[in-house]
Automatic annotation (TrEMBL):
Residues 10-248 form the ABC transporter domain. GO terms for molecular function: ATP binding. Keywords: ATP-binding, Nucleotide-binding, Transport. Gene3D superfamilies: P-loop containing nucleotide triphosphate hydrolases. This is ABC transporter ATP-binding protein.
C-alpha cells in the first residue's frame, strides 16, 4: 500500500487514467508522481491532449483515477471536496446570469454554511465585497454578468473562488479565451491575490510565458498517455510584475520550458 504524505497539500503516486469506449481503451495518464506543498503555485504545462486538464479533474475529485493514489490534506479528493477544501475556477466564468456580481462572488458563503450545518466543513468564506475591490470590480458589484466584458466576468469568477475560503484552488486555463491585454492584466491581479491570501494553486495553461510568470514550479507534460516529462523550478523572486517578462533571464527560462516540452514530444514520435 502506498504511504500518503499528509504534510503536503497534494500527493500523487502512480496516478493513471484509462477511458473505455466500446471495445477500445484510451490511456490519458500514466505513472504520474507529484507532490505539491502548501502555499505553492504550480502549473501543469503542455499543448492540448497531454492530459493536464484530466489530471486537474482527478485532483478536484471530478473524475477518478484508474490506478495509483491521490491525497489532498491526507484525504481523498472526494472527501476534500465535501469539506469545501477545493475551489474550482473553470475556463469560462460560469456566473449565474440572474444574480449580480456580488451575489455570484458570495455563492461560496451559502455553500459553506450548508456544509457547516451538515458537519462537513468549518471553512470560513472570505468577504466577497473586499475581494471584488481587490480584483478591480468594486464599482461593478451590483452589475449583472451580461453587463460586463469577458475579462470582468472572469475577474468575478476568480473573486468567487478566493471568497470560498478553500486552501486549494484549481484553475483550468482561466485566461485562454481572453484577449492578450486582458490576460496580461489578470495574470498580475492573480499574483497579487495569491500573495495576499496564501492559497495553494494548481494552474493549467498551454502558454510557456504564463507558466513561468506565475509559477514556483512548471510541470511539463508529455504526449498521451500523459506523464510528467520534467519539473522546471522558477527561481525569480516575488512579488513579480510585468516588467519581469522583459528580463533576459525570464526569456531564457521560457525558452528552457519550451525546450523541455519539445524534447518530450519529439522523443515520443
Amino acid at each position: 500500500m502506498t504511504q500518503q504524505n499528509t504534510t503536503s497539500t497534494i500527493d500523487l503516486r502512480g496516478v493513471g487514467r484509462t477511458y473505455t469506449r466500446g471495445r477500445s481503451t484510451v490511456k490519458a495518464l500514466t505513472g504520474v508522481d507529484l507532490t505539491i506543498r502548501q502555499g505553492e503555485f504550480v502549473t501543469l504545462f503542455g499543448p492540448s491532449g497531454c492530459g493536464k486538464s484530466t489530471l486537474l479533474r482527478l485532483i478536484a475529485g471530478l473524475d477518478t483515477q484508474t490506478s495509483g493514489s491521490i491525497s489532498l490534506f491526507g484525504s481523498t479528493p472526494a472527501q476534500a471536496s465535501r469539506r469545501k477544501d477545493i475551489a474550482w475556477i473553470p475556463q469560462s466564468s460560469a456566473l449565474l446570469p440572474w444574480l449580480d456580481i456580488k451575489a455570484n462572488a458570495g455563492l461560496s458563503s451559502v455553500l459553506n454554511r450548508r456544509a457547516d450545518r451538515q458537519g462537513l466543513s468549518s471553512r470560513r468564506p472570505e468577504d466577497p465585497d473586499a475581494l471584488l475591490a481587490e480584483i478591480g470590480l468594486g464599482d461593478f458589484r451590483d452589475s449583472r454578468p451580461d453587463e460586463l466584458s469577458g475579462g470582468m466576468r472572469q475577474r468575478a469568477s476568480i473573486a468567487r473562488g478566493f471568497a470560498q475560503g478553500a486552501p486549494l484552488m484549481l484553475m483550468d486555463e482561466p485566461f485562454s479565451a481572453l484577449d492578450e491585454l486582458t490576460r496580461d492584466t489578470l495574470r498580475i491581479r492573480l499574483l497579487e491575490l495569491w500573495d495576499r491570501h496564501k492559497k495553494t494553486i494548481v494552474f493549467v495553461t498551454h502558454s510557456a510565458q504564463e507558466a513561468v510568470l506565475l509559477s514556483d514550479r512548471v510541470v511539463v507534460m508529455s504526449p498521451r498517455p500523459g506523464r510528467i516529462s520534467e519539473i522546471v523550478d522558477i527561481p525569480f523572486p516575488r512579488p513579480r510584475g510585468w516588467e519581469l517578462t522583459e528580463e533576459p533571464e525570464f526569456i531564457e527560462k521560457v525558452a528552457e520550458v519550451k525546450r523541455v516540452l519539445w524534447s518530450a514530444w519529439e522523443g515520443d514520435e
